[in-house]
Amino acid sequence: MNPRTTSILASAGLFVLTLACAGIVFFPYYWMIVSSLEAASLFEWPPRLVPSSVTLEAYVRIFTERDVFTWFKNTAFVASSTSVFCTLVAINGGYALSRFRTHATTGFSIFILFSQLLPATLIVVPLYVIFRQTGLYNSLIGLAIADAAFVLPLATWLMKGFFDRIPVEVEEQAMVDGCTRIGAFYRIVLPLALPGLVVVVAMSFITGWDEFFLARTLISSQGNWVFSVGLTSFETQYAIAWDEMMAAAVVFALPAVLFFLFVQRYLVSGLTSGAVKG
Amino acid sequence: MAGVQFVEISKSFGQVQAVSEVNVEIEDGEFAVLVGPSGCGKSTLLRMLAGLERATSGSIKVGGKVVDDLPPKDRDVAMVFQNYALYPQKTVAANMGFPLRMRGAGRLETDRRVLETARILGLEDLLKRYPKQLSGGQRQRVAMGRAIIRNPSVFLFDEPLSNLDAKLRVRMRAEIKELQQRLGTTTVYVTHDQIEAITMSDKIVVMRNGRVEQVGSPLDVFDSPVNRFVAGFIGSPAMNFLEGRIRSTDDGPEFITAGGLTWKLPDVGLRDLSRCASIGMRPEHIELAAEGESDAFSLRISVVEPTGADTMIIARNGSDELSALIKGRHAFVPGNSIHLKPLLGMLHFFARDEKAIRT
After folding, report:
1. Does domain A66-277 match CATH 3.10.450.50?
2. Domain extents in chain A
3. Which of B47, B87, B190 is the best residue to mutate to test the A interface, defined by the most A CB atoms within 10 Å of its own CB?
4. What is d(CA B236, CA B192) in angstroms, rounded to the nearest whole number?
5. In 3D, which of B356, B330, B144 has the Cα closest to residue B234?
6. Could you tell me which residues are beta bridge partners of residue B25?
7. What does the pLDDT look like over A123-167, one tens digit per residue?
8. What is the number of CB-based contacts under 8 A between chain A and chain B?
9. What are residue B290's phi and psi, to 5 degrees?
10. Domain range spanning residue B140?
11. ipTM of the complex model
């Protein structure tokens, strides 16, 4: 085979592989949308990939008969609060771990990584007890704090990595040029760590948005349900309203998808910029 | 404008003593160079002056005022770092204007002075660019622009030329010196390059292991080094040292080198020569001698390095080694013997404790 043919074949192979991967990733979404538009076909065999009839009835039903708006509002509140908590703590903590190197901080950096190794199931019962005692049980703020606690170790490490890559001289220069240490941090260092900041904001927002386990355990009243908990209410003792559940799932996923579309430019540069020295 | 005084300054990092009891006075308008091998504490001293490190003990004065408790921004000093430390997210104009904006200058005033400074440094066409779009020399100039724009009392330079290629370094060296002369601002410049130190400075501070070895004008330090370290560190090519001991004879003292050469010491008017443990001579102060001349050494040529204008040779005799810079071009052959003699007035004598022996 001449090199030209080889390279064409290689490109073609890569294209097919990419297509296959994309198919695997996107099919569940496709199926979710199809099922929300036509419930009857869900369990047919062989499966019908293209729906024969399309109806928006399920969507109308969830918005009129269910508390979707409340779930939406609660979820948005929890996700934003998680994101704000997490980002504030992670940028300050990451900066401290990056710039103030002592035995204590090095030990602490490793310690917080260990906390990441503990599964949520292990922590949820003590968390439940603590939340009951402190009045955070069944509160959205409490849920946001719990969600943030699970993202924080990774977020702090991520920010530390980004700060590590910013030369300390730039900051010292800013201090000589007329900034206080905090001023130099907010004016010069933080803007340089923007890709990392976006990653942390996105990561914590999504965690707060789609977290189920903690939300199920720490929230009791229906009025405080978040979307992920709300979704389970379509499953009743005798029936599962698949079309409604899928319609709600589409509504639930939409903001997250839009959010990612918006920040993906930063995300990609943020996640890969650690790999190659800029 | 202001002078700078280091009074009994010491700094330790944990167990490591980086700077020990430094006393140096830099006059108003002077160009002072802190020079020494890496790890000698010169950068630490500069960073303490900038306020980026806190002295363990002692005091620093700028313009007669103690600045020990002032943060960097209130010390009225401007600094140029080795890696230039330009703000990557800001344009050249914004980089240069930043210190002014931080001091509350308005946009119009800032723009005017940025343009004015850019003109001095030839940066007018680059004002809209970002640091990553500039060459090394241009970045260097922007960093200097950012330093001079606010007219500080003292400029601090931390090895600003070491990231540039050799040719650009020589040019920037002259530019910095010219700029300093024009502005007349007190300057403290750190380098490990003794050529930079000699060519640029009004005052050289030679440091080793956190201590100041010698302070003086460049030529003073070059001509009268106080010890072997300074003698060997300042000057390029470096000074030769012949180790040995003095023996008294009826004809006067003789110097017997470690390599076994016996050299009848000329009368150079030093009283205390018996303490002499080594003799230093600069390569450019050694000339060709005829065979049998009384104060000449006989050695074997090991390496010949023609530099174009002159000829550098390295000659040995046992463990004795001399490098000599001989004027003009010569057809020396490695392996042949050669007779060399030092210029008598240019010899340096050092005692066993490495201190220079003076008249």
Report:
1. no
2. 1-55, 66-277
3. B87
4. 13
5. B356
6. B5
7. 889 999 999 999 999 999 999 999 998 899 989 999 999 999 899
8. 57
9. -85, 160
10. 4-233
11. 0.85
